[in-house]
Amino acid sequence: MKQHAALAPYLPVHAYGLGDLLYEQARSRHDMIAVIDGDHRFTYEQLDERVNRLAGVLRARGVGKGDRVLWLGQNSFRVLEALLASARVGAIFCPANWRAAPAELNVILDDFDPAIVFWQEAEIGDANRAARKGWKPESNWICHDGCAGEDSYEELLASADPETEFAPVETSTPLLAIYTAAFSGRPGAALLSHESLIIIAWLAMQGQSIDEKSGYLVSGPMFHVGVLMGTLGTFLAGGRNAFVPRVEANQLLQMMQDEKLTHAFVPQPTVVQMREANAGGKYDVSSLFCDAELSDWSMPMVMPRDAPAMKSMGGYGQTEIGGLAAVAWMGGTGAGRPVPFVAFKIGDEQGNELPRGEAGEIFARGPIVMCGYWNRPEENARRVVNGWHRTNDLGKRLPDGSIAFVGPKTTMIKTGIENVYPAEVESALRSHPGVADVCVIGVPDPKWDQNVKAVIVRKPDTDFPAEHFIEHCRALMASYKKPKIIEFTESLPKTPVGFVDRAAVDAGFGGGGYPKVG
């Protein structure tokens, strides 16, 4: 005990969160460009001052350790500022899906109960105002893109105290909340710690060959961990993060040309649009691609061809374990080997480890794993088994020790880059007065990988048309989640214990194409 007490003075020395990383970047790379967004260009030193001012705004409005901050807007350099300011005061920051319907936003607002909401007027102002009115009209909302008669982000920053002294934050405490697709018909916010985010950044920096000369096109939404990895990796390396509010082919091409960007997040449907927009080589994209046709594009995470993750593509992960936690560039076969900050175990339902080669649930532990789901005590208790996180995914340990992903225990639909869980769509459809029973499946699509299809058993004496069910879902959730196809049936096949037999529904109604990795 005496020896432990003698070491106590060193405990504060180890406090190092994402806010501390920015402090050092402002010293080490004070005059290097950190963020680009339209006419905005800020060095690391300028970014540090802006974050200090924003943290002062948060602190002045009573935001402290453990309080929540919500972002309801499209991509912006201010998302990174808000994340870093939250880090400085010990708050938890959540970038929500800006495409969510007002009803979905109200669910998030009720669940997350933010002390501050940053919101956007352009394009999505009506939905945000409706959500605010339906939640707490007098709550603390700050408009990031300038709204008449509202608290303005830039005006508040200009008048804020650029105070630099903030209490140390424990590295293992939650910083980022990412709402994941529903695991039980209700989305949950996975909480990632300061330590986890720094590790995610380091892994992206190594795997994607990011350094201080790199420029990253933040062209995907920041509520996707795949986009977040590249953004944080670039921030950690001291490179440039170039933000665009949403995906628009010509704008992306122009940004690539003007800023000579080296990394990006560009999903396949966007690549198709960019190829059409760049016919004849209108834009110079040579910093990212080998030719004007973008012919060397192979996955959404675009990086130099000699990057480790390009030379050995593949991996397994989920938001709850910090994104990609087993990667082919670390060696092995299948999905590859675990990164150095996580341990995997293939176990049975009780968490007992299974022999190599036998399929079971993937369990994970280590500092990269989430701190749990916000406001989900029952789910958190269920997800932890003898100190291991239950992923709800099936896998196996290959003969060489690598990890292979077999598939989700709960079926997931992949449409474009978006994950859609049938349980969430089914929950929405069951609230329709014409639905007696329903099963949502994924059907193959050459462009989007899969489309969402709902197989519905109508209630007696109802004859709502298919479009009615689609519009019902559109009003309750983000548009990409709604079914594109409706098919009616007299009954759904059931298992011996009375549950819908999803495999039989797939076989009978054209399902297939579900994601497989490794």
From TrEMBL:
Recorded source organism is Sphingomonas paeninsulae
Location of the AMP-dependent synthetase/ligase domain? 23-374
AMP-binding enzyme C-terminal domain location is: 424-498
| Domain of life the protein comes from | Bacteria
Q: Please tell me whether the keyword Cell division is annotated for this protein.
A: no
Keyword check for Hydrolase, yes or no. no
**UniProt keywords, alphabetically:** Plasmid
Query: Under the GO molecular function aspect, what terms does this record hold?
Result: acid-thiol ligase activity
What is the designated name of this protein?
Answer: Acyl-CoA synthetase
Spans through the membrane: none
Q: Which InterPro entries match?
A: AMP-bd_C, AMP-bd_C_sf, AMP-dep_synth/lig_dom, ANL_N_sf, ATP-dep_AMP-bd_enzyme
